[in-house]
Amino acid sequence: MACVAVTWARPESTYTDKWDNINVDEILESNRLLKGYVDCLLGKGRCTPDGKALKETLPDALEHECVKCTGKQKSGADKVIRHLVNKRPDLWKELAVKYDPDNIYQARYKDKIDAVKGSA
Predict the structure, then answer these.
(1) For residue 60, is it within any domain?
(2) How many domains is the chain built from?
(3) Which end of the chain has fewer surrounding CB within 10 Å, N or C?
(4) Would residue 5 count as lying in a domain?
(5) How far apart are CA 67 and CA 39, in angstroms?
(6) Does residue 16 sit within a domain?
(7) What pTM value is reported for the model?
(8) CATH number for the domain harbouring residue 76
(9) Cα(60)–Cα(23) distance, rounded to whole angstroms?
(10) CA distance 10 to 16
(11) Which DSSP symbol is given to 101?
């Protein structure tokens, strides 16, 4: 459920870094901002330009283990996962239902998910 360090696919080897300087901490610390992004990802609300890019890129990033993510995007994704798993499991579950209904990625990333539990 990763990459809030938002991305937009392009033919090169990484996603665009256009959104790399978004303040992920500010989003995670604000229930309003976080809910806005989650609602965008779930198709329940309007998307900001960066939210739209994330929504379009997230399936590819999950499928290919974020290989096209920049370092900042990987770092942001790790931070988001840690926050959602530990502090907002309700949102984590909603995102998992939408983006991983067959538990493919939950199984693939089980060790990483288990490693962040309790390390908020």
Answers:
(1) yes
(2) 1
(3) C
(4) no
(5) 26
(6) no
(7) 0.81
(8) 1.10.2080.10
(9) 23
(10) 7
(11) T
Length of the chain: 120
Query: Which two structure tokens, joined as six digits, stand for 12?
Result: 């090169």
Give the pLDDT confidence of 24-73 residue by residue, as tens digits. Answer: 999 999 999 999 999 999 999 999 999 999 999 999 999 998 999 999 99
Amino acid at residue number 69 = C
Locate 118 and state its tokens.
Answer: 């309790």
Number of helices (H), then strands (E), in the chain: 7, 0
Q: Letter for the amino acid at 55? A: K
Read off the amino acid at residue 59. Answer: P
Within a domain: residue 103?
yes
Q: What is the domain range of residue 60?
A: 24-117
Long-range contacts of 17-26 (CB under 8 A, 24+ apart): 17/70, 17/72, 17/73, 18/53, 19/50, 19/53, 19/54, 20/70, 20/72, 20/73, 21/72, 22/50, 22/76, 24/76, 24/79, 24/80, 25/79
